[in-house]
Amino acid sequence: MLGRLRILFYWMPIVLLWACCDGPVSEVDLKSIPYDPQVYTPDVPANFPPLEVPADNQLTVQGVELGRRLFYDTILSADSTMSCSSCHLQENNFTDNLAVSEGIDQIPGKRSSMTLLNVAYSNTGLFWDGGVKTLEEQALLPVEDPIELHDSWPNVEAKLRRHADYPRLFRQAFGIEQESDITKLLAAKALAQFERIMISSGNSKYDRVINGTDVFTDLELDGHDIFFDVSEDVERHAECGHCHNAPLFTTNEFFNNGIDKVATLNDFIDPGKGLLTNRPFDNGTFKVPTLRNIEHSAPYMHDGRFATLDEVIDHYITGGNHADNLAPVLRPLILNDYDRSALIAFIRTLEDPNFLNNPLLSDPF
């Protein structure tokens, strides 16, 4: 009898513990943390278009800072080894300088990582194929992509809810009242806010010239005229400005720029935008990237096939491979060595070291 009592006495605390933990775990009340979001006003260059911000995700200091933390935090990946910044490094113009990126399982993707510079102005869709319309929608995808961060949002939400800092940061940014209010949609909103402030500083040499505080060298000026087809001599037209127009140096349009040789429009290895639209005429068309800070975004094209700007110019001098949907502005170019040097000299005036070193965009950890 005494032995049975001792056994009962031994197991009772464990049974009681199980009973206590069987119900829902009580949450910390976050309402005691002040919720007073401050409006964030991004510094947009004077020669840029107005920045459009969705009404349901206005920029705040707290939201941007939360997004910055999430962007650099490996908590978003299944094994805590990668973050958004792993493929979008600030010093590389928020690319990774790889032809194609690899995720946490070392599986290569099929396209090069696009720069996030001025991504807030991508009003025709995001990614090389324009398949996602908003930054909020885009921010949801890498977490669950099996080639990228390869996690699940329910698991990431659980990690964020039990984190030492994120409940407070979500409270300050979005006014949540308890940890369970942390959702993937709020995380995506914060990430989108941070990506929206990735805007050129307006202090590249090109911008200073436009603003009247600097002047081009003769070589840069000749490059400018070749780039924008200013000269009356058609032989000195490079046709660049049609697709890379100022001030963003992209029109955000989609073109087949002739890098692939195909027999028909159905023969592209990567159909690009056509994969989404199912229109053969869209096959092999990809989004025009910005040329701002372009030397930091190598390699070039959607598959990173060209390592240098010289290789890119070599391609365009040929006029590209013919296809029924080849961009109409493409034609064989007649550029001599001086013209090439001038063209590259002008493109280099788009370099923006202030953006590459902006502490507001850097790793907070």
User: Measured on Cα atoms, how large is the radius of gyration?
Assistant: 26 Å
How many beta-strand runs?
Answer: 2
Q: Could you tell me how far the N terminus lies from the C terminus, measured between alpha carbons in angstroms?
A: 61 Å
Helix/strand class: mainly alpha
Strand content: under 5%
For the largest sheet, list the strands in their spatial order.
Answer: 1-2
CATH superfamily of the largest domain: Cytochrome c-like domain
- Give the number of domains: 2
- The helix/strand series, from N terminus to C terminus, equals HHHHHHHHEHEHHH
Major sheet, described briefly?
2 strands, antiparallel
Number of helices: 12
Q: Outline, from the CA principal axes?
A: globular
CATH-defined fold name of the largest domain: Cytochrome Bc1 Complex, Chain D, domain 2
Poorly predicted ranges: 1-23
CATH architecture of the largest domain: Orthogonal Bundle
CATH class of the largest domain: Mainly Alpha
Approximate helicity band: 25-40%
Average predicted local confidence, pLDDT: 93
Task: Based on the model shown, name its key terms.
365 residues, mainly alpha, Cytochrome Bc1 Complex, Chain D, domain 2, 2 domains, two-stranded antiparallel ribbon, 12 helices, 2 strands, disordered N terminus
Description:
The structure is a single chain. This protein is mostly helical and 365 residues long. It is globular, with a radius of gyration of 26 Å. The relative contact order is 0.14. The chain has a two-stranded antiparallel ribbon. Helix 2 (61-72) runs antiparallel to helix 5 (166-174). It has helices at 2-22, 61-72, 135-144, 153-161, 166-174, 184-196, 205-210, 218-227, 274-277, 309-318, 337-348, 353-356; strands at 254-255, 286-287. The protein contains 12 helices and 2 strands. The protein folds into 2 domains: 26-200, Cytochrome Bc1 Complex, Chain D, domain 2, CATH 1.10.760; 205-356, Cytochrome c-like domain (Cytochrome Bc1 Complex, Chain D, domain 2, Orthogonal Bundle).
